[in-house]
Amino acid sequence: MDLTISVIKADIGSIGGHLAPSAALLERVRETLDELSRGLLIDWQISHTGDDIALLCTHREGVASAKVHALAWEAFRRGTETAKAQGLYGAGQDLLKDAFSGNVRGMGPAVAEMSIRERTAEPFLFFAADKTDPGAFNLPLYLAFADPMNTPGLILSPSLGKGFRFVIMDVAAGENDKVIELCAPEDLYDIAALLRDTERYVVESVWSRATGEQAAVVSTSRLHNIAGKYTGKDDPVMLVRVQMDFPATGEVLAPFAVGHFVAGGMRGSHNMPLMPVPRNTPTSYFDGPPLVSCSAYSMRDGKLSEPQDCFAHPFWDAVRAEIAAKAIAMRRQGFFGAAMLPMSELEYTGIKERLAGLATRFAPR
Ligand code: F6R
Ligand code: MG
Ligand code: MG
Prior knowledge:
Layout: E1 3-10, H1 23-36, E2 41-49, E3 52-59, H2 66-85, E4 110-116, E5 124-130, H3 138-146, H4 153-156, E6 164-170, E7 178-184, H5 188-195, E8 201-208, E9 214-218, H6 223-227, E10 237-241, H7 249-253, E11 261-264, E12 270-273, E13 275-276, E14 291-297, E15 299-300, E16 303-304, E17 308-309, H8 315-331, H9 350-359
Parallel strand pairs: 13-14
Antiparallel strand pairs: 1-3, 1-4, 2-3, 5-10, 5-14, 6-7, 6-8, 8-9, 9-10, 11-12, 14-17, 15-16
Helix pairs in contact: 1-2, 3-5
One magnesium ion (MG) binds at residues 11, 18, 51, 90, 232.
Protein backbone atom coordinates (compact mmCIF):
# COMPACT_ATOMS: atom_id res chain seq x y z
CA MET A 1 0.00 0.00 0.00
CA ASP A 2 1.14 3.55 -0.67
CA LEU A 3 2.83 5.48 2.07
CA THR A 4 1.69 8.99 2.93
CA ILE A 5 3.90 11.75 4.29
CA SER A 6 1.85 14.53 5.91
CA VAL A 7 2.99 17.83 7.32
CA ILE A 8 0.37 19.78 9.23
CA LYS A 9 1.42 23.04 10.84
CA ALA A 10 -0.13 25.82 12.82
CA ASP A 11 0.69 28.89 14.87
CA ILE A 12 -1.14 28.36 18.14
CA GLY A 13 0.68 30.87 20.30
CA SER A 14 4.17 32.12 20.98
CA ILE A 15 6.42 33.78 23.53
CA GLY A 16 7.18 37.49 23.45
CA GLY A 17 5.08 38.32 20.38
CA HIS A 18 5.38 36.19 17.24
CA LEU A 19 8.76 34.66 18.12
CA ALA A 20 8.54 30.97 19.06
CA PRO A 21 6.25 28.50 20.85
CA SER A 22 7.05 27.73 24.51
CA ALA A 23 8.63 24.46 25.63
CA ALA A 24 5.42 23.62 27.55
CA LEU A 25 3.32 24.16 24.42
CA LEU A 26 5.58 21.93 22.33
CA GLU A 27 5.50 19.32 25.09
CA ARG A 28 1.68 19.35 25.18
CA VAL A 29 1.51 18.77 21.43
CA ARG A 30 4.13 16.01 21.71
CA GLU A 31 2.24 14.29 24.56
CA THR A 32 -0.99 14.40 22.57
CA LEU A 33 0.62 12.77 19.55
CA ASP A 34 2.27 10.20 21.77
CA GLU A 35 -1.07 9.33 23.34
CA LEU A 36 -3.29 9.32 20.24
CA SER A 37 -1.05 8.30 17.34
CA ARG A 38 -0.67 4.60 18.18
CA GLY A 39 -2.07 2.34 15.49
CA LEU A 40 -2.56 5.32 13.19
CA LEU A 41 0.82 6.88 12.48
CA ILE A 42 3.91 4.88 11.58
CA ASP A 43 6.19 7.67 12.74
CA TRP A 44 6.11 11.37 13.55
CA GLN A 45 8.33 14.29 14.54
CA ILE A 46 7.59 17.76 15.89
CA SER A 47 9.60 20.90 15.19
CA HIS A 48 9.05 24.62 15.07
CA THR A 49 10.20 27.37 12.73
CA GLY A 50 9.58 30.79 14.22
CA ASP A 51 6.14 30.69 15.86
CA ASP A 52 4.82 27.74 13.80
CA ILE A 53 4.66 24.16 15.06
CA ALA A 54 4.90 21.48 12.36
CA LEU A 55 3.84 17.86 12.75
CA LEU A 56 5.61 15.60 10.27
CA CYS A 57 3.82 12.24 10.09
CA THR A 58 4.02 9.02 8.07
CA HIS A 59 1.06 6.65 7.74
CA ARG A 60 -0.97 4.54 5.31
CA GLU A 61 -4.25 6.46 5.55
CA GLY A 62 -3.77 8.46 2.31
CA VAL A 63 -3.87 12.23 1.85
CA ALA A 64 -6.62 14.25 3.55
CA SER A 65 -7.30 11.41 6.01
CA ALA A 66 -10.00 12.46 8.49
CA LYS A 67 -8.29 10.37 11.20
CA VAL A 68 -4.85 11.94 10.72
CA HIS A 69 -6.27 15.45 10.43
CA ALA A 70 -8.41 14.93 13.56
CA LEU A 71 -5.30 13.90 15.46
CA ALA A 72 -3.45 17.05 14.36
CA TRP A 73 -6.45 19.23 15.22
CA GLU A 74 -6.68 17.67 18.69
CA ALA A 75 -2.95 18.19 19.27
CA PHE A 76 -3.28 21.86 18.26
CA ARG A 77 -6.47 22.26 20.30
CA ARG A 78 -4.83 20.90 23.46
CA GLY A 79 -1.71 22.95 22.71
CA THR A 80 -3.91 26.04 22.54
CA GLU A 81 -5.13 25.30 26.08
CA THR A 82 -1.53 25.39 27.27
CA ALA A 83 -0.81 28.54 25.22
CA LYS A 84 -3.80 30.28 26.83
CA ALA A 85 -2.82 29.10 30.31
CA GLN A 86 0.66 30.57 29.79
CA GLY A 87 -0.66 33.82 28.32
CA LEU A 88 1.18 33.25 25.05
CA TYR A 89 0.59 35.75 22.26
CA GLY A 90 -1.87 34.72 19.53
CA ALA A 91 -3.02 31.56 21.40
CA GLY A 92 -5.00 29.39 19.00
CA GLN A 93 -4.49 31.95 16.22
CA ASP A 94 -4.48 29.50 13.27
CA LEU A 95 -7.45 27.43 14.50
CA LEU A 96 -9.98 29.53 12.65
CA LYS A 97 -12.98 27.24 13.13
CA ASP A 98 -14.45 26.11 16.45
CA ALA A 99 -15.15 22.46 15.67
CA PHE A 100 -13.23 19.98 13.54
CA SER A 101 -15.11 19.01 10.40
CA GLY A 102 -13.13 16.14 8.89
CA ASN A 103 -10.23 17.94 7.19
CA VAL A 104 -8.00 20.67 8.59
CA ARG A 105 -7.61 22.15 5.09
CA GLY A 106 -9.67 25.32 5.09
CA MET A 107 -9.72 25.48 8.91
CA GLY A 108 -6.47 27.41 9.39
CA PRO A 109 -3.57 24.94 9.69
CA ALA A 110 -1.33 24.56 6.62
CA VAL A 111 -1.14 21.10 5.05
CA ALA A 112 1.35 19.51 2.64
CA GLU A 113 0.86 15.80 1.99
CA MET A 114 1.81 13.26 -0.62
CA SER A 115 1.18 9.56 -1.13
CA ILE A 116 4.13 7.77 -2.64
CA ARG A 117 5.43 4.38 -3.66
CA GLU A 118 8.33 4.33 -1.22
CA ARG A 119 11.68 3.76 -2.93
CA THR A 120 14.20 1.34 -1.37
CA ALA A 121 16.01 4.49 -0.29
CA GLU A 122 13.60 7.40 0.20
CA PRO A 123 15.48 10.64 0.88
CA PHE A 124 13.24 13.70 1.19
CA LEU A 125 13.35 17.26 2.49
CA PHE A 126 10.86 18.98 4.76
CA PHE A 127 10.83 22.78 4.56
CA ALA A 128 9.01 25.11 6.95
CA ALA A 129 8.92 28.89 6.55
CA ASP A 130 7.70 31.60 8.91
CA LYS A 131 6.63 35.22 8.34
CA THR A 132 5.96 34.64 4.67
CA ASP A 133 3.49 32.90 2.36
CA PRO A 134 3.42 29.92 -0.04
CA GLY A 135 4.67 32.01 -2.99
CA ALA A 136 8.03 32.10 -1.19
CA PHE A 137 8.69 28.63 -2.64
CA ASN A 138 7.98 29.64 -6.27
CA LEU A 139 11.52 30.73 -7.08
CA PRO A 140 13.34 27.84 -5.34
CA LEU A 141 11.07 25.30 -7.09
CA TYR A 142 11.48 26.97 -10.47
CA LEU A 143 15.27 26.95 -10.10
CA ALA A 144 15.45 23.39 -8.72
CA PHE A 145 13.09 21.75 -11.22
CA ALA A 146 13.35 23.86 -14.36
CA ASP A 147 16.68 25.69 -14.58
CA PRO A 148 19.86 23.83 -15.60
CA MET A 149 21.90 26.82 -14.34
CA ASN A 150 20.87 25.67 -10.85
CA THR A 151 20.24 21.97 -11.45
CA PRO A 152 22.87 20.35 -13.66
CA GLY A 153 20.93 17.09 -13.27
CA LEU A 154 18.49 18.44 -15.87
CA ILE A 155 21.21 18.03 -18.51
CA LEU A 156 23.25 15.24 -16.91
CA SER A 157 20.54 12.72 -15.98
CA PRO A 158 18.36 11.16 -18.73
CA SER A 159 15.47 10.87 -16.28
CA LEU A 160 15.60 14.49 -15.07
CA GLY A 161 16.12 15.51 -18.70
CA LYS A 162 12.52 14.52 -19.46
CA GLY A 163 11.50 17.49 -17.35
CA PHE A 164 8.90 18.13 -14.67
CA ARG A 165 5.19 18.94 -14.60
CA PHE A 166 4.18 21.92 -12.44
CA VAL A 167 0.70 22.16 -10.94
CA ILE A 168 0.15 25.86 -10.19
CA MET A 169 -2.75 27.22 -8.17
CA ASP A 170 -4.47 30.56 -8.56
CA VAL A 171 -4.85 31.33 -4.85
CA ALA A 172 -7.00 34.38 -5.51
CA ALA A 173 -9.81 32.26 -6.93
CA GLY A 174 -11.60 32.25 -3.56
CA GLU A 175 -13.35 29.08 -2.42
CA ASN A 176 -13.09 27.28 -5.74
CA ASP A 177 -9.41 26.52 -6.16
CA LYS A 178 -8.23 26.79 -9.75
CA VAL A 179 -5.13 25.00 -10.99
CA ILE A 180 -3.19 24.82 -14.24
CA GLU A 181 -0.69 22.14 -15.30
CA LEU A 182 2.40 23.23 -17.23
CA CYS A 183 5.46 21.24 -18.27
CA ALA A 184 9.10 22.25 -18.13
CA PRO A 185 10.99 22.77 -20.32
CA GLU A 186 8.52 23.50 -23.13
CA ASP A 187 6.18 25.74 -21.09
CA LEU A 188 9.02 27.51 -19.30
CA TYR A 189 7.98 31.05 -20.22
CA ASP A 190 4.37 30.40 -19.18
CA ILE A 191 5.56 28.93 -15.88
CA ALA A 192 7.80 31.96 -15.33
CA ALA A 193 5.02 34.40 -16.22
CA LEU A 194 2.80 32.91 -13.52
CA LEU A 195 5.36 32.25 -10.81
CA ARG A 196 6.68 35.83 -10.80
CA ASP A 197 3.36 36.83 -9.22
CA THR A 198 3.96 35.12 -5.88
CA GLU A 199 0.83 36.43 -4.16
CA ARG A 200 -1.49 35.07 -6.82
CA TYR A 201 0.08 31.96 -8.39
CA VAL A 202 1.64 29.33 -6.21
CA VAL A 203 3.26 26.00 -7.06
CA GLU A 204 1.05 23.34 -5.49
CA SER A 205 3.00 20.28 -6.62
CA VAL A 206 5.72 19.09 -9.00
CA TRP A 207 5.78 15.71 -10.77
CA SER A 208 8.46 13.75 -12.63
CA ARG A 209 7.62 13.32 -16.32
CA ALA A 210 9.96 10.34 -16.54
CA THR A 211 8.14 8.24 -13.93
CA GLY A 212 4.90 10.10 -13.18
CA GLU A 213 5.95 10.16 -9.50
CA GLN A 214 5.28 13.16 -7.31
CA ALA A 215 8.39 15.17 -6.45
CA ALA A 216 7.11 18.06 -4.34
CA VAL A 217 4.06 19.44 -2.55
CA VAL A 218 3.49 22.88 -0.99
CA SER A 219 0.78 24.06 1.39
CA THR A 220 -1.28 26.62 -0.51
CA SER A 221 -3.74 27.91 2.10
CA ARG A 222 -4.58 31.60 2.20
CA LEU A 223 -5.87 32.39 5.67
CA HIS A 224 -7.71 35.51 4.60
CA ASN A 225 -9.70 33.40 2.12
CA ILE A 226 -10.82 31.28 5.09
CA ALA A 227 -11.33 33.93 7.73
CA GLY A 228 -12.69 36.57 5.31
CA LYS A 229 -10.09 38.99 6.66
CA TYR A 230 -6.36 39.06 7.16
CA THR A 231 -5.35 36.91 10.16
CA GLY A 232 -1.58 36.64 9.65
CA LYS A 233 0.78 35.34 7.02
CA ASP A 234 0.19 31.85 5.60
CA ASP A 235 3.53 30.51 6.74
CA PRO A 236 4.01 27.59 4.33
CA VAL A 237 5.43 24.06 4.53
CA MET A 238 6.82 21.95 1.70
CA LEU A 239 7.96 18.37 1.06
CA VAL A 240 10.46 17.57 -1.70
CA ARG A 241 11.66 14.08 -2.64
CA VAL A 242 15.29 14.08 -3.78
CA GLN A 243 17.91 12.00 -5.65
CA MET A 244 17.50 9.36 -8.38
CA ASP A 245 14.65 10.58 -10.63
CA PHE A 246 14.43 13.86 -8.70
CA PRO A 247 16.94 16.70 -8.25
CA ALA A 248 19.79 16.03 -5.81
CA THR A 249 19.48 17.37 -2.26
CA GLY A 250 22.07 20.06 -3.00
CA GLU A 251 20.22 21.14 -6.15
CA VAL A 252 17.07 21.72 -4.09
CA LEU A 253 18.95 23.57 -1.33
CA ALA A 254 21.07 25.77 -3.61
CA PRO A 255 18.32 28.30 -4.53
CA PHE A 256 17.97 29.26 -0.88
CA ALA A 257 21.38 30.94 -1.06
CA VAL A 258 19.74 33.68 -3.16
CA GLY A 259 17.95 35.22 -0.17
CA HIS A 260 15.15 36.33 -2.49
CA PHE A 261 12.71 38.99 -1.34
CA VAL A 262 9.38 37.58 -0.18
CA ALA A 263 6.23 38.97 1.36
CA GLY A 264 6.48 38.94 5.14
CA GLY A 265 8.33 40.30 8.12
CA MET A 266 6.91 43.07 10.27
CA ARG A 267 3.11 43.00 10.56
CA GLY A 268 3.05 40.60 7.62
CA SER A 269 3.23 43.67 5.43
CA HIS A 270 6.77 44.04 4.06
CA ASN A 271 9.16 42.65 1.49
CA MET A 272 12.12 41.04 3.20
CA PRO A 273 14.75 38.52 2.09
CA LEU A 274 14.14 34.86 3.01
CA MET A 275 16.80 33.61 5.44
CA PRO A 276 17.67 29.88 5.66
CA VAL A 277 18.03 28.98 9.36
CA PRO A 278 18.49 25.86 11.52
CA ARG A 279 15.43 24.01 12.82
CA ASN A 280 13.72 25.50 15.86
CA THR A 281 14.96 29.05 15.23
CA PRO A 282 12.84 31.94 16.60
CA THR A 283 12.13 35.15 14.68
CA SER A 284 13.81 38.40 15.65
CA TYR A 285 14.80 41.42 13.52
CA PHE A 286 11.77 43.42 12.34
CA ASP A 287 9.54 40.41 13.21
CA GLY A 288 11.59 38.48 10.71
CA PRO A 289 13.44 38.29 8.57
CA PRO A 290 11.22 35.64 6.96
CA LEU A 291 12.76 32.28 7.88
CA VAL A 292 13.00 28.91 6.20
CA SER A 293 14.30 25.69 7.78
CA CYS A 294 15.01 22.41 6.02
CA SER A 295 15.20 18.95 7.58
CA ALA A 296 16.49 16.07 5.45
CA TYR A 297 15.20 12.59 6.19
CA SER A 298 15.59 9.04 5.03
CA MET A 299 12.98 6.44 5.80
CA ARG A 300 12.19 2.76 5.42
CA ASP A 301 8.61 1.45 5.59
CA GLY A 302 7.58 4.88 6.87
CA LYS A 303 10.03 4.80 9.79
CA LEU A 304 11.91 8.12 9.81
CA SER A 305 15.62 8.58 10.41
CA GLU A 306 16.67 11.42 12.66
CA PRO A 307 16.63 14.74 10.76
CA GLN A 308 19.71 16.32 9.25
CA ASP A 309 19.47 20.06 9.78
CA CYS A 310 20.39 21.30 6.28
CA PHE A 311 20.82 25.00 7.00
CA ALA A 312 22.86 24.43 10.20
CA HIS A 313 25.98 23.81 8.06
CA PRO A 314 28.68 26.55 8.35
CA PHE A 315 28.24 27.39 4.65
CA TRP A 316 24.94 29.06 5.48
CA ASP A 317 26.57 31.42 8.02
CA ALA A 318 28.05 33.39 5.11
CA VAL A 319 24.68 33.33 3.31
CA ARG A 320 22.91 34.56 6.44
CA ALA A 321 25.38 37.45 6.85
CA GLU A 322 24.68 38.52 3.27
CA ILE A 323 20.91 38.21 3.74
CA ALA A 324 21.03 40.19 7.00
CA ALA A 325 22.80 43.00 5.09
CA LYS A 326 20.13 42.82 2.37
CA ALA A 327 17.39 43.01 5.01
CA ILE A 328 18.94 46.09 6.59
CA ALA A 329 19.41 47.72 3.18
CA MET A 330 15.71 47.29 2.42
CA ARG A 331 14.72 48.55 5.87
CA ARG A 332 16.59 51.82 5.22
CA GLN A 333 13.73 52.89 2.97
CA GLY A 334 11.13 52.27 5.70
CA PHE A 335 7.64 52.09 4.25
CA PHE A 336 8.49 53.60 0.86
CA GLY A 337 7.98 51.83 -2.47
CA ALA A 338 9.10 48.22 -2.68
CA ALA A 339 9.77 47.96 1.08
CA MET A 340 6.08 47.66 1.97
CA LEU A 341 3.62 45.26 0.30
CA PRO A 342 0.93 46.51 -2.10
CA MET A 343 -2.42 47.54 -0.59
CA SER A 344 -4.08 44.19 -1.41
CA GLU A 345 -1.57 42.30 0.75
CA LEU A 346 -1.40 44.56 3.79
CA GLU A 347 -2.41 42.89 7.03
CA TYR A 348 -4.05 45.94 8.52
CA THR A 349 -7.07 47.92 7.42
CA GLY A 350 -5.97 51.13 9.18
CA ILE A 351 -4.25 52.52 6.10
CA LYS A 352 -7.35 51.95 3.94
CA GLU A 353 -9.46 53.88 6.44
CA ARG A 354 -6.86 56.64 6.55
CA LEU A 355 -6.84 56.96 2.74
CA ALA A 356 -10.65 56.84 2.59
CA GLY A 357 -10.69 59.72 5.07
CA LEU A 358 -8.30 61.74 2.89
CA ALA A 359 -10.15 60.95 -0.36
CA THR A 360 -12.96 63.36 0.51
CA ARG A 361 -10.45 66.18 1.05
CA PHE A 362 -8.94 65.98 -2.46
CA ALA A 363 -10.11 68.98 -4.49
CA PRO A 364 -9.87 69.56 -8.25
CA ARG A 365 -7.00 71.84 -9.23
C1 F6R B 1 3.27 35.05 11.02
C2 F6R B 1 3.07 36.22 11.86
C3 F6R B 1 2.68 37.50 11.27
C4 F6R B 1 1.69 38.23 12.17
C5 F6R B 1 1.67 39.68 11.85
C6 F6R B 1 0.62 40.49 12.61
O1 F6R B 1 3.72 34.03 11.79
O2 F6R B 1 3.26 36.11 13.04
O3 F6R B 1 2.18 37.42 9.99
O4 F6R B 1 0.43 37.66 12.04
O5 F6R B 1 2.94 40.16 12.11
O6 F6R B 1 0.68 40.28 13.94
P1 F6R B 1 0.20 41.28 15.08
O7 F6R B 1 -0.82 42.22 14.48
O8 F6R B 1 -0.37 40.40 16.14
O9 F6R B 1 1.44 41.97 15.51
MG1 MG C 1 2.51 34.26 13.78
MG1 MG D 1 4.25 32.03 11.83
